[in-house]
Amino acid sequence: MSVQPQANPSMSATSGAAVRLKDRFDIHYDKPLPGLRSPSAAAFVAEDVKTPGSRHFAMICDPKMPPRMEAIRKLQLLKSYGVLTPVEVGAVDWAPANRRMFAIVCEQPLGERLAGPTDNAITPWGEEALVAHIVAPIVQTLLDLDRELLPHRGIRPGNIFFRDANRRVAMLGDCMTSPPGLYQSVVYETIEGALAQSHTRGAGAPAQDLYALGVLVLHLLFGKLPCAGQPEEKIVEDKIKRGSFYTLVSEQRVPAGLSELLRGLLVDDPQARWRLGDIQMWLDGRRMTIKQPVPAIRAPRGFEVDGEECETARHLALALDSQQPEVASRMIRGPNFETWITRTLGDKQVVEAINMAFSARSESAGGAAGQNAQMVSRVLMALDPPAPIRYRDAATAVDGVGSLLAVTMLTGGDLTLPTEILQARLPQFWCQRQGSTKGEDQATIRFFDKMLRFLDDKRPGYGIERVAYEMTPGLHCLSPFVESRFVEHMRDMLPAIEFAVQAKTVDVSPVDRHIAAFMATYENNVDEGLLYTLISSDPAARVLGTLQLLAYLQETYGPPQVPALMQLFGQQAKPVIERFRSRYTRTRMQAGLTAILKESSLRKLADYLDSADEQRKDAQRFQRARLEYQQTIKQMEKAVQQTQELGGSAKLAGHSVAVKIASLISSAIVGVTLFAMGVL
Amino acid sequence: MARPPPARAAAMKGAAAKGKAAPAGQGRPGTPVAGKSGKNATLMLAIVVLLVLALFERPVCMLLVFALVPTMLAWLVDNTSGQSLIRTVAPLNLASVLPFAIKLWHEHNSLDQVFAFMSGSTTWVALYGAAAFGWMLYYLAPAVITTVLERRIEKLRDAAADRQKALKDEWGDDVEK
């Protein structure tokens, strides 16, 4: 399939090895910029045609990763110098990949990257330089981001640039081209983030950026990644057992000047962790007190899981999560577990939560094994409330469920896990376990309840596809018909479908479940009744429903010419025309179709084929024809009866006629005789 | 749709109604006795007229006896309730007698003249020809009427069949349901 330029006003092809984005930026795909690339986006030179000489570059996003559209929108509004900010975004025809790709154009930082993307060893920074050139500018940027409630979630040496060539002012790199925290090392993640799968860490909160900032300070200070060379599982376990500060600092000596900052940032309890205001005050030279986090309740005797003694609920949750759900389920249902929780650990909140986990039931797929896995998942949440939702092989933050679903769909993975997580209402259980007094959790619960309703609804426009688009803003339409056209806005949908029809990708219905769900998500004015017709058993209703949907798109967004679609509907119009009972109407409709098809207006075609007036007239005429037919039957029966009765009646009538004729002739004879013989 | 004109329909209805009300060989309700009595009344009237004529106008009476043989035969043969045969034959028969009766009265009102008439073949042709025409009329009229009505019914049936075909042609077999 060849990629052809579309009649899209926002984008057009340019001469040479470049493509134009929204009539402003020429992106040169023969001029890569390896120094500016992100793990999920290659970088290329972008020329501003309105301001020649400006230094821009374009990141071409990996289509298998959903971009952070919310972050892009907020950064466009924020226009901060301390973070890589998009100047223009949109999909472009990317010839090297033979498809459309999402491009983000940003200004090139004047300085280089702090370290290579994979460099764990860095030249150590001095204490003062580190604070002045790295910490202070980043804190200022985080303050800007905090005003927009936007966590960066990508603070690591490989994703930090300098605003100047002298490497004096650090700026944060890309946080737009992939799900939040995707490329963060486990070291840079809080315990909660580290427990989640990398693509399902969720945007989280600014506190997670501050934790990463603390790790960054350690990294730059010592010139090497903390815990380098250790397995990820070991690092997470150590963080849980010993706390992040001691795990990451290990036996190294932290300068007294930075000890306070690091202790404040690397606190595992987000509530006790320093906030931006605290760092600002520290930067201003005030001496801060470290809030001592409430230590986790330790049991006097550990619960043994696979030879390991677990003394805290969080450690037990980690150990149980490492077991198969069936094994973990047996342990949880065993008498020792209950005794340990209620008597040995003695944490009333955990006991209450465990009881809730046992009593919670949901009608979900997966059978007994599924029920077991769900119970284990709830117990893990009861034991360790802030940890991500851990279900079977999935581990996702509550705000990472959308990414889990989107990435699974994009990579063609099995959707069973995300579906079961939603059906089992695990996100709602997680929210209930946070014990937050804010309305945020209730709003999240309502949101997931709504998603569950969408999931259970099997009609087009709903189902797992709708959930994916609702939960992942900016996820482009994943219909196989238009996926390669990267449709992330409804205005691009019809041109993409037209392209697919031209390329023979579509041969029957150009609207599938993905397109229906995408439309239902982004177009409030779409008539749901039309979406239901897509699964109608009546082929005519299906064709008309599809046609009406696309006619709406053409009316709202254009383009004015869709010849391939017109031809497709022309071929599919037969069952629609066959709905008319009158052969003459059908012939007339078929004859008039050619002229309508030439006009290339889906609305006119829809109105022509779906004319209520024409259908009403046809139905009325059919009823009249039926009555008339019944009358003709009666007439024929009457004729037969009359023929049978004709003998007697005709004889009688004949005799009567004979009498009358005889009378007439006789009268004539008498008259003539009387006159002729002179009597009269 | 080719519907039968109202006048025709009414005529057909009328014919059918007549057929039902008075089928061939049967009288009107209670007519077998009435028909018989009517026939006898006709006979009595004829006998009375002939007796009166025999007393006062013997030549005319004689002429009528010879001339009205076809009518007498019709009286004998006619078993219809309305005496259609008599009513067809008798007027023509009597009308054919009238010229001879007037001539008899105006010229020689005698039996000789009656026999003179009877001796001429023209007289017989005139008298019995008219009666024969009446007989012919009586037997041919039903056949003609039957043919005409048959044609009319056939036309209506054909029109209905054509319309059915046209309706099925436009609307398909569903129109039958």
Keywords:
heterodimer, A: 680 residues, alpha+beta, Phosphorylase Kinase, domain 1, Transferase(Phosphotransferase), domain 1, 4 domains, seven-stranded antiparallel beta sheet, two-stranded antiparallel ribbon, 27 helices, 13 strands, elongated, disordered N terminus, B: 177 residues, mainly alpha, 7 helices, 81% helix
Give a verbal description of the structure.
- The complex is a heterodimer of chains A (680) and B (177).
- Chain A is an alpha+beta fold.
- Chain A has 4 domains: 11-107, Phosphorylase Kinase, domain 1; 127-283, Transferase(Phosphotransferase), domain 1, CATH 1.10.510; 303-457, no CATH class; 483-610, no CATH class.
- Chain A contains 27 helices and 13 strands.
- Chain A has helices at residues 69-78, 127-147, 191-195, 206-222, 232-242, 244-249, 256-265, 276-283, 313-321, 325-333, 335-345, 348-359, 367-383, 401-410, 416-423, 426-434, 439-456, 463-471, 493-502, 513-522, 528-532, 539-557, 563-572, 574-578, 583-599, 602-609, 612-676; strands at 11-13, 18-21, 25-32, 41-48, 56-61, 86-94, 99-107, 160-162, 170-172, 303-305, 308-310, 389-391, 394-396.
- In chain A, helix 13 (367-383) packs parallel to helix 16 (426-434) and helix 18 (463-471) packs across helix 20.
- The radius of gyration of chain A is 38 Å and the shape is elongated.
- Mean pLDDT of chain A is 89; it is low at 1-14.
- Chain B is elongated, with a radius of gyration of 25 Å.
- The interface between A and B is large, with 45 and 60 residues.
